[in-house]
Design goal:
Length: 484
């Protein structure tokens, strides 16, 4: 098999450089092929019809003249050359042995062929064909059987010039050519226009991509219609909006992180400058140096916590496709142990039921710990933190001042600190990490207030039957309704 590339090179053909050009050429070729096929078909049908009509006329004339000629073969039924010329017909009788009987003084003498001889010998059927006469004139010749005296088979052959028919066909060819060329030009123009309109969304997307590359500006493209190209434009707009949102979140995260990191760094720098100055002058009183070092250690802890929270929030990847099956009750119990150490004077009302899920234990425990730390932070002395896990819902409530109505819509925003939390330790990222983690596990978390005061957070996670089967043999029963 000859490779396609050498064939294209041999033919001098090159692929279209643009999609618009390719579609325009394809439409032009299709239209040209269609017009050519219609023109050829119309010409063939018309030519066949005209020749059949001419044949029928000659056969009719032959049928009318056969009896007279059969009765007077030698005199050809009284026909003469003038009568034949008036009828525009050439006529002769072809015998089975090949002899020809012609009209006396006939000016047009045509020679018979095998088709006419076959009719003469068999005495059945008819024949018709186009032939070239001695002077180069085209004739349509037909042969019909005729019985001569004594029942001798023969054929009566009639011929007529096709000049009138050829003139009609010549006019038809010219008309088809003119109409075909004009129709092709109009169709090609419409095809290019259609390709221009059809590819308008593609050009819009292309220009938008070029604009993004040159100016770094993310701006959607106007969409018109509901076809496939419009769907491509909508997909592009979705991508642009997603990138714009991601860029905005990144910009906001960097700005907020810079603002939050500046405070501990400034304080740490001030304390370190005091220690450096004290090494040179001994200006600090006794015990101040140790207090400054403890302050630096606390600031480092706050700084480390803030960096860890930022790293957690910067993760855009969802939960792995094959994470660990686990009992969410174990995650909550581990988080409660840590929360008790941070709130030694608080009571914990714990009611836990099994909840089998698929997830990442470390990130889930950190999310639950953040909720418990929030409850410990705002609980009054000797207060109670309620932790209930029932069905697929975890509820954590405290007895603190609760959340102001204006703050409920923002508690999960990054670095958001309500007026009540301005003087409390923290980075303002804990609840954002909770929302990010729970959402990555296919769940949701909501914030509200309980009647009588106190904040309440409710976490919904989708259960997993596969995790239940995996953990069923390793579960240790935990009594529901425990209070500590």
């Amino acid at each position: 098999m000859i490779p396609a590339r050498p064939i294209r090179q041999w033919l001098g053909w090159r692929p279209a450089r643009t999609l618009r050009r390719a579609i325009g050429i394809l439409i032009s070729l299709c239209v040209f092929g269609t017009v050519l096929a219609v023109a050829v078909t119309a010409y063939i049908v018309t030519r066949t019809s005209l020749l059949n009509q001419l044949d029928n006329e000659l056969i009719t004339v032959a049928g009318f003249m056969s009896p007279r000629i059969a009765d007077d073969v030698e005199g050809m039924g009284g026909l003469n050359n003038d009568a034949l010329n008036a009828a525009n017909v050439a006529l002769f009788v072809l015998q089975a042995n090949g002899d020809v009987i012609r009209v006396q003084d006939a000016t047009v003498n045509l020679d018979p062929g095998p088709q006419e001889l076959a009719v003469a010998r068999t005495g059945t059927g008819t024949s018709s064909r186009t032939m070239i006469g001695p002077s180069g004139t085209r004739y349509r010749m037909v042969a019909v059987p005729i019985n001569l005296g004594g029942g001798t088979p023969a054929a009566l052959v009639l011929a007529r010039s096709t000049a009138p028919t050829d003139a009609v066909l010549r006019s038809l060819r010219i008309a088809l050519l003119i109409v075909g060329v004009a129709g092709s030009l109009v169709a090609i123009a419409l095809g290019w226009s259609a390709s221009e309109s059809a590819l308008a969304p593609v050009r819009q997307v292309s220009r938008a991509l070029a604009r993004v590359t040159e100016t770094d500006e993310l701006r959607p493209v106007d969409v018109e219609g509901n076809d496939e190209l419009a769907e491509v434009t909508r997909s592009f707009n979705t991508m642009v909006n997603t990138l714009q949102s991601s860029r905005e979140r990144q910009r906001r995260l960097i700005a907020d992180a810079g603002h939050e990191l500046r405070t501990p760094l400034t304080s740490m720098r001030t304390n370190i400058e005091l220690l450096v100055a004290d090494d040179k002058t001994g200006m600090l009183p006794e015990g101040a140096r140790s207090e400054i070092l403890r302050d630096i250690a606390a600031q480092l802890g706050e700084f480390t916590s803030l960096v860890g929270d930022l790293v957690q929030l910067s993760r855009e990847d969802p939960v792995a496709a094959s994470p660990e099956p686990l009992d969410f009750r174990d995650i909550v119990e581990s988080a409660i142990i840590r929360a008790r150490r941070r709130g030694p004077g608080l009571r914990f009302d714990v009611q836990l039921e099994p909840l089998y899920i698929v997830g990442e234990p470390d990130t889930l425990e950190r999310a639950v710990t953040n909720l418990l730390d929030n409850a410990v932070k705002f609980s009054p002395p000797q207060g109670t933190v309620h932790v209930h896990l029932q069905g697929n819902q975890l509820r954590i409530a405290d007895e603190g001042p609760g959340i102001a109505e204006d703050d409920l819509a923002h508690v999960f925003d990054r670095f958001y600190r309500s007026d009540r939390a301005r003087n409390t330790p923290g980075t303002g990222l804990g609840l954002s990490i909770v929302a990010h983690t729970i959402l990555a596990h296919g769940g949701r978390v909501t914030a509200g207030n309980v009647p009588g005061g106190g904040a309440e957070f409710i976490v919904d996670l989708p259960p997993s039957p596969e995790a239940q089967e995996t953990q069923a043999g390793a579960d240790t029963p935990v009594s529901a309704g425990r209070s500590q």
